[in-house]
Known about the structure:
The structure is a homodimer.
Chain A: E1 8-13, H1 18-30, E2 36-41, H2 44-57, E3 62-67, H3 75-79, H4 81-88, E4 98-103, H5 121-145, E5 153-159, H6 172-191, E6 195-201, H7 208-216, H8 220-231, H9 238-251, E7 258-261
Parallel strand pairs in A: 1-2, 1-4, 2-3, 4-5, 5-6, 6-7
Helix pairs in contact in A: 1-2, 1-9, 5-6, 7-8
Amino acid sequence: MGVFEKKSCFVITGASRGLGRSIAINFAKKARKESVMILLSRDTKALNEVETEIRSCCQDVSVVVCGFDQGDLDERKFQNIFENIFKENKLSIDSFEQAVIVHNAGTLGDNSKYVKDLVNVSELNTHFGVNLTGNILLNSACLNFFTQERFAHRYVINISSLTAIRAFKSFSLYCTVKAARDMFYKVMAEEEPNIRVLNYAPGPCKTDMQIKCRENTSDPEVKQMFESMHNEGNVLECDTSIQKLVQVLETDTFVSGAHIDYYDL
Amino acid sequence: MGVFEKKSCFVITGASRGLGRSIAINFAKKARKESVMILLSRDTKALNEVETEIRSCCQDVSVVVCGFDQGDLDERKFQNIFENIFKENKLSIDSFEQAVIVHNAGTLGDNSKYVKDLVNVSELNTHFGVNLTGNILLNSACLNFFTQERFAHRYVINISSLTAIRAFKSFSLYCTVKAARDMFYKVMAEEEPNIRVLNYAPGPCKTDMQIKCRENTSDPEVKQMFESMHNEGNVLECDTSIQKLVQVLETDTFVSGAHIDYYDL
């Protein structure tokens, strides 16, 4: 039975825009009735718009939105986040067969800087805080709430990038975090054979981050690469990439912990 | 002309024991006369012993030891570290042809924990602080002091690990940081074509960290693997591995930014 045929609890971070928004909407369209979409983001206003959009097209699923900043490293905010969401929204944990977590939230880091320009402690701490520490804490909160005892089927999808495996000048902060997270989820795949773990690299998509990649990079060669990609129409619609992710999950033959790129498929 | 034939300034972090100590001593033995070994570590007492050892065997090189905690993220401590060392030790920057930086300092992280057990903010912040933020800050300090204008020849060696490319249960913190650092130095290799950058994985060596790997892991399979390696005599002497690193540097044909393992050679 495919991923989207089970009554599921979806958790999607960074769901207010770009890829996260596309994941929320495309997954909701595919989701079995009575599934719930739990959407997290700092931007609650934009999150409410995503909620409205899902409610208008997918009456059979419920939507819960939650203002959440993965970079606000207050342990208590992570600890009981899902207990609280379930309680406040009168959700019953026993009513779901499956949990699908999508770690999409993340930041680019300052790509106007080369490695040698990285001299600011708070900039580095903030970057690793939101992209590593915060992500790991949220993941632990997921694993400890959506336990194997409660959820026979679990998926954890890390939104990865080509930059996890290929170095780009002026992208040291982004590359470093993406490589780190791929490895983190590879270790989790080894530790948790009952969780299906996927590192999905969506390809270059039309997002605010893609604009920053192109406009802010300090490196002329890399700028040229991003501009050519843009000018030649090779930047993907988010939905195009996410529909391929949906296919990967439906086919469900990937090796747990693998890095799979849009262009591999 | 080989790496060790130039009058060099060597900087080695974590030089008080284990691999760092072995790097310091083996490099000093190879170093051209009038080179200087700048040895950093939190443990100044052990560092002084390494200094004594080098002075007794290598009268032609000078040794500077410096108490330094890469995890103490005070920007000012990183900013002028090499200016201060040069001033305090009356070293003249013009007298060196080459700088060789070895980023060896690092911590294992708590390998009694699985991914799902990582719920403590300060533990994660400390781990990423010393192994990523602190390492990046020290590296920037190196690049901004040992500039291309002053040093025609520069090498940066990141002490990597098999765990940078292979996932081991209960080693998520270590694997994540090692993968992150490999990628960081790959980006640097792209950005800095005039620096020779190497990610060297030394293999399992007889260090305090190796004991922790074996004794503290929460995972029975991984424990068994480390114990077999230990019992069958497959844990290397630090010097054995570092002599191979010396060879790699002497041959000097590696692709800048490459990950090279002891067992690849």
